[in-house]
Amino acid sequence: MEKEKLIINKIRAFYFMAGVLKLQQTDPRCSVCKSRKEVAEELIEEFNEFKEITDFEAVPEIFKNKLKDIEDILSQIKLPEKPIPQRKVGDCHFPDKECLVKECFEIFEDLVEEEED
Q1: What is the CA radius of gyration of the chain?
Q2: What are phi and psi of 106, to 5 degrees?
Q3: Alpha-carbon distance 14 to 6, whole Å?
Q4: pLDDT tens, per residue, the chain with 117 residues
Q5: CA distance linking residue 50 with residue 31, whole number of Å
Q6: 3-class SS at 84?
């Protein structure tokens, strides 16, 4: 049962982060940002690896369906061909020069890492 919970929580974390990336592609600054592109590429790679190495047999169908939703969301992610390092060029104005997408990715990583302990 514990392993099933870990898998479900990882699916939920991937779903969260995929949603952030999709939503931020409509933001005028994030949509062309180098950081968003890098995070998206890393998330896609991690998701594909997760699918390869995980046995989803014991996972309830509702969460198996979320895997398809994540795939659909990730397939809709548009990445800039010439990304702009928004923070470095002074166009990202979050306090303390924090990157919204990177902050969300850190939350994602914390969720996934806690589950592996």
Answers
A1: 15
A2: -65, -40
A3: 12
A4: 588 899 999 999 999 999 999 999 999 999 999 999 999 999 999 999 999 999 999 899 999 999 999 999 999 999 999 999 988 887 887 777 788 999 999 999 998 885 554
A5: 26
A6: strand
**pTM, rounded to two decimals:** 0.90
Widest CA span in the chain: 49
Which residues in 83-106 are b (16+ Cβ under 10 Å) and which e?
ebebbeeeebeeeeeebbbeebbe
Phi, psi of 15 (to 5 degrees): -65, -45
The secondary element (H helix, E strand) that includes residue 7 is helix 2-24
CA–centroid distance for 40 within its chain: 6
Token pair belonging to 90: 């002074």
Per-domain boundaries in the chain: 2-111
Q: Is 116 exposed, middle or buried (0-12, 13-18, 19+ CB in 10 A)?
A: exposed
